[in-house]
């Protein structure tokens, strides 16, 4: 029995990125204990509810960025797509369009952005940094121009169902925003860990040339991960719109940073081929706990940003050092 349990534990540790996930999970527990000691209100029911609701959007965009990072690419357009989604949906609703139809139109526009990113990177061989930097500017420009360079008016009572679904409503005592994050995690985790598409994503990130020789369609796979990224950003834009009750042109600022933070803190390698979405969950929670805990401790926003920035840099640095110093297999 003991031998079988040891084998199960070894199999779990053998999963790519699981070691990092277990390490950061221990770090998360330590952070929660520390902030709880500093301020007992940290563990109050109300704060935990609000904390989960703050973490949910970061987890969602982190899922999209994780898909892209595992292929060895990056998506800098995420934050602008969040803003574009927020502004398009709000503008359409204030012009009288049915909220759910405006949602559909918004998601389609976001998916098209993802397809464009994938084509630029995979088909036309643009460096992902440059390609997504360009679409970042385009998406932000769309966010600004859809309502003539103004934030929208309030989306009104007609959108009450929309706002409840994405932000204010609860199901079984849990905010719907959290349920949306859970459902998206379950769907995209299954796709990444249990399907051929998921295996192709890891193959492209591990060795793109070997993936091609194995019959993997690199262009299609890359387009798929950018679609996931843009879709997730679009959903976060809808949540942002529901939260504010209006469209704001600067919505999503810095969200590309938050997405990368959630991913790399959770063990997703920026060099590609390594990482699991379970780690992204922990990474998003660490981001949320740090923001919330430091706020309770009275730390200014600047200090919070510095702390998270340092953690991201250290996480990536450790990943690079481990990957580059790993012993090469003899042929």
Walkthrough of the structure:
- With 331 residues, the chain is mainly alpha-helical.
- It has helices spanning 2-14, 18-38, 45-70, 78-94, 99-123, 128-145, 160-168, 176-194, 196-206, 208-213, 218-244, 255-265, 277-296, 301-325, and strands spanning 170-171, 174-175.
- The chain has a two-stranded antiparallel ribbon with strand order 1-2.
Stretches with pLDDT under 50, minimum 5 residues: none
Query: What's the β-strand tally?
Result: 2
The shape, in one word, is globular
Spatial strand sequence of the major β-sheet? 1-2
Number of helices: 14
Distance between the termini: 37 Å
Task: Please give the share of residues in helix.
Answer: over 70%
Portion of residues in beta strands equals: under 5%
For the report, how would you describe the main beta sheet? 2 strands, antiparallel
Summarize model confidence as the mean pLDDT: 89
Rounded Rg: 20 Å
What is the H-and-E element order? Answer: HHHHHHHEEHHHHHHH
Helix- and strand-based class? Answer: mainly alpha
Short recap of the structure:
With 331 residues, the chain is mainly alpha-helical.
Quick tags:
mainly alpha; two-stranded antiparallel ribbon; 331 residues; 14 helices; 2 strands
Topology:
Elements: H1 2-14, H2 18-38, H3 45-70, H4 78-94, H5 99-123, H6 128-145, H7 160-168, E1 170-171, E2 174-175, H8 176-194, H9 196-206, H10 208-213, H11 218-244, H12 255-265, H13 277-296, H14 301-325
Antiparallel strand pairs: 1-2
Helix pairs in contact: 2-13, 3-8, 3-11, 3-12, 3-13, 4-5, 4-6, 4-11, 4-12, 5-6, 5-11, 7-11, 8-9, 9-11, 12-13, 12-14, 13-14
């Amino acid at each position: 029995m003991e031998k079988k349990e040891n084998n199960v534990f070894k199999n779990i540790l053998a999963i790519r990125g699981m070691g990092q996930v277990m390490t950061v999970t221990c770090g998360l527990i330590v952070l929660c204990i520390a902030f709880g000691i500093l301020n007992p209100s940290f563990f109050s029911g109300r704060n935990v509810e609000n904390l989960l609701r703050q973490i949910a959007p970061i987890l969602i965009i982190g899922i999209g960025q994780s898909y892209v990072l595992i292929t060895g690419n990056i998506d800098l357009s995420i934050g602008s797509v969040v803003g574009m989604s927020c502004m398009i949906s709000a503008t359409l609703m204030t012009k009288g369009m049915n909220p759910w139809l405006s949602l559909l139109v918004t998601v389609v526009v976001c998916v098209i952005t993802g397809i464009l990113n994938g084509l630029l990177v995979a088909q036309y061989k643009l460096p992902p940094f440059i390609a997504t930097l360009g679409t970042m500017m385009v998406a932000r420009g769309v966010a600004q121009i859809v309502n003539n360079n103004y934030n929208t008016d309030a989306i009104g009572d007609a959108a009450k169902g929309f706002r409840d679904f994405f932000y204010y409503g609860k199901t079984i005592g849990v905010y719907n925003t959290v349920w949306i994050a859970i459902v998206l995690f379950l769907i995209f985790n299954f796709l990444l860990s249990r399907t051929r598409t998921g295996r192709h994503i890891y193959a492209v990130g591990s060795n793109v040339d070997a993936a091609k020789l194995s019959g993997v369609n690199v262009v299609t796979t890359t387009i798929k991960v950018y679609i996931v990224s843009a879709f997730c950003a679009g959903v976060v834009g809808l949540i942002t719109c529901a939260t504010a009750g209006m469209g704001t042109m600067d919505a999503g600022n810095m969200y590309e940073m938050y997405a990368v933070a959630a991913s790399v803190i959770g063990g997703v390698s920026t060099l590609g081929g390594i990482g699991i979405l379970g780690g992204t969950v922990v990474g998003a929670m660490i981001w949320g706990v740090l923001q919330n805990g430091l706020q309770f401790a009275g730390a200014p926003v600047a200090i919070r940003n510095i702390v998270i920035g340092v953690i991201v840099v250290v996480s990536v640095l450790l990943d690079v050092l481990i990957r580059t110093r790993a012993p090469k297999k003899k042929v």
